[in-house]
Amino acid sequence: MNKRKNAFYAQSGGVTAVINASAAGLIETARSKPEKIGKIYAGRNGIIGALTEDLIDTSKESAAAIRKLRHTPAGAFGSCRYKLKSIEENRKQYERLIEVFAAHDIGYFFYNGGGDSADTCLKVSQLSKKMKYPIQAIHIPKTVDNDLPITDNCPGFGSVAKYIATSTREASFDVASMAKTSTKVFILEVMGRHAGWIAAAGAMASDAATEIPIIVLFPEVPFNRKNFMAEVKRKVSEFGYVSVVVSEGAKGKDGKFLSDQGLVDAFGHAQLGGVAPVVANMIKQDLGYKYHWAVADYLQRAARHIASKTDVEQAYALGKAAVQLALKGENAIMPTIVRTSNSLYRWKIGTTKLNRVANVEKMMPKNFITKDGFGITPKCREYLGPLMKGEDYPPFKNGLPDYVRLKNISVKKRVNTEFKL
């Protein structure tokens, strides 16, 4: 593009402890190129902000406020679960996007999210050809589930992994203290619909220096009640207690989620949650052990206070890379993490085309899961370890993390018509 254009940035899907670090990387980099990029607008609540012309003027935020985004969790501009249909199915949505983009002279589109968000970004990139509107769409990877393909890992995951491993270790110490006369089984439910990456992180709580009896229930391994109970009984007999880390997506041989309540979310996916009490009740019925269970839920993805330094650095770098790619004329592309060394962990930024990422899930490799289906292999530990390393504590004030809340001032609307979602 010869003429300087404005940029649109939005956050999508479940937020993370480091998605704002990507926003900081993007905004700071774009601000450093005023001769090429004009205003940086943020969509209030993701793509919905573009459709409803609810744009936030990030130029109203100070450099210090944007810098603070690097250590602030959640989505500073609001997120959404809203998936665009194809241009053929809902042309009005795309005509609306063009109307808003044209009104605000937007030529760069940056979408920060997971697999469904990659699909949305891909569809927006197609505006250039199908609807004759010049737009460059760059997807910035983010998902605690770590299930995007091509990229070595996804920003957000390393911090969740660190939180879950830490929580599992701490809770296990507690259970071990009480096991003689009280609780013998602790069950921790973690996120992960189809991929067991987060559950695998729970197993990292145990190592050669600190051995802890842990059983992991992966979505990739069909749940077998008889085998599971035998393993629980064996661990309790040997150690006096056991900790179970179960993915929300754990399912039986019939493929049905153990926690499926028959509800669906905004994307049409099964609404999960509540597998921990299901497993706990099974243990009570079959073995009679006293138990406690917990659901990590939002705590695991909001825990910026214990974020992985590697994760924060990678999230920021990908936001920065997105702008650099756009200025090189790239479209329908996603910056990725490329692992270049394991012995001494090193990584660099790579790229991949969006049609290789959209709606594709990366599951746990078979050689990452032990043969009994209840643990992780040394190869998995080698993969997970570097992603969890390093501390990047936020500043504290009066004993609490000092996070930033942006002003989020809306841009004056230029399109007279309203749009109903």
Describe the protein in words:
This protein is of the alpha/beta class. It folds into 2 domains: 5-142 and 306-359 and 393-401, Rossmann fold; 157-303 and 369-388, Phosphofructokinase domain (Rossmann fold, 3-Layer(aba) Sandwich). It is built from 13 helices and 13 strands. The strands form 4 sheets. It has a 5-stranded mixed sheet with strand order 3-2-1-4-5, with helices on both faces. A 4-stranded parallel sheet has the order 7-8-6-9, sandwiched between helices. Helix 1 links the parallel strand 1 (5-11) and strand 2. Helix 1 packs parallel to helix 12 and helix 9 packs across helix 10.
Number of domains: 2
Strand order of the largest sheet: 3-2-1-4-5
Residues in helix, %: 25-40%
SS-based structural class? alpha/beta
- Contiguous runs where pLDDT drops below 50 for at least 5 residues: none
Find the CATH topology of the largest domain: Rossmann fold
Give the overall silhouette: elongated
Rg over alpha carbons: 23 Å
